[in-house]
Every structure is written in C-alpha cells, then in structure tokens.
C-alpha cells in the first residue's frame, strides 16, 4: 500500500487514514496534546503534517507513526494554516511549446 491508496480525515483531535477504494480504516492517530480541536493536515510526500491548538507533528502517512513534534511554545492557539514550498519538478517545455511561443 502507498500513500496514493489513502484518504486522510481529521476531526476532534484525531487523524484517520482510510483506504480510498473501500473506506477501510488503515490507521488512527490521536493528538497527545491540543485537546479535541480541529486538526489541520498537510500531506507532503513522505510526511503528513498535522497541527492542532498550537502543536505540530510530522506523521508517517503510511502508518501514522509520529516522526517529530514541535510545541511552538508562546506562539498562540487557534486554527492553524500549513504550507510547504516543496512541489514536483515542472515538466520541461516541448519543441511544440517553444514553437507555439514563437508564433504568439
């Protein structure tokens, strides 16, 4: 099984990985800190980042294992926003793309 086979659901301080074809629960994780609040998720390649009430974790998306934890002490609470600049490499332009650009 790969991360392409999974759907991640979060609520009440929990993250649940479901098999995207049949909805079978693959793993569950409960935030050890942050109460039962909203868990914001960011899937990013070999990591699933989860943030809840000022705490942030990196999880292994295949099994839910905690890879690291950051309490961000003194930074506040509330609904987190997660972002990463990591992305797939852009597709190099083809000869047809170059010719179309010249025609414009």
Quick gist of this model?
This protein has 104 residues and is mainly beta.
Question: What low-confidence regions span 5 or more consecutive residues with pLDDT below 50?
Answer: none
Number of continuous helical runs: 1
> Terminal Cα separation, in Å?
46 Å
CATH architecture: Beta Barrel
Q: What is the residue-mean pLDDT, rounded to a whole number? A: 85
The CATH topology is given as: Lipocalin
Got a strand count? 7
Number of domains: 1
| Strands in their spatial order, largest beta sheet | 4-5-6-7
State the helical fraction: under 10%
Main sheet makeup: 4 strands, antiparallel
Spatial extent as radius of gyration: 18 Å
Order of helices and strands: EEEEEEEH
Which strand-content bin applies to the residues?
35-45%
- Tertiary shape: extended
- CATH class reads Mainly Beta
Please identify the structural class as seen in this structure.
mainly beta
Provide an overview of this structure.
By secondary structure, the protein is mostly beta strands. The protein has one domain: Lipocalin, CATH 2.40.128. 9% of the residues lie in helices and 38% in strands. The protein has 1 helix and 7 strands. It has one helix at 95-103, and strands at 6-11, 14-19, 25-30, 40-44, 47-52, 55-59, 66-70. A 4-stranded antiparallel β-sheet has the order 4-5-6-7, with no helix packed on it. Strand 4 (40-44) and strand 5 (47-52) form a beta hairpin. The longest helix has 9 residues, at 95-103.
Q: What are its keywords?
A:
single chain; 104 residues; mainly beta; Lipocalin; three-stranded antiparallel sheet; 1 helix; 9% helix
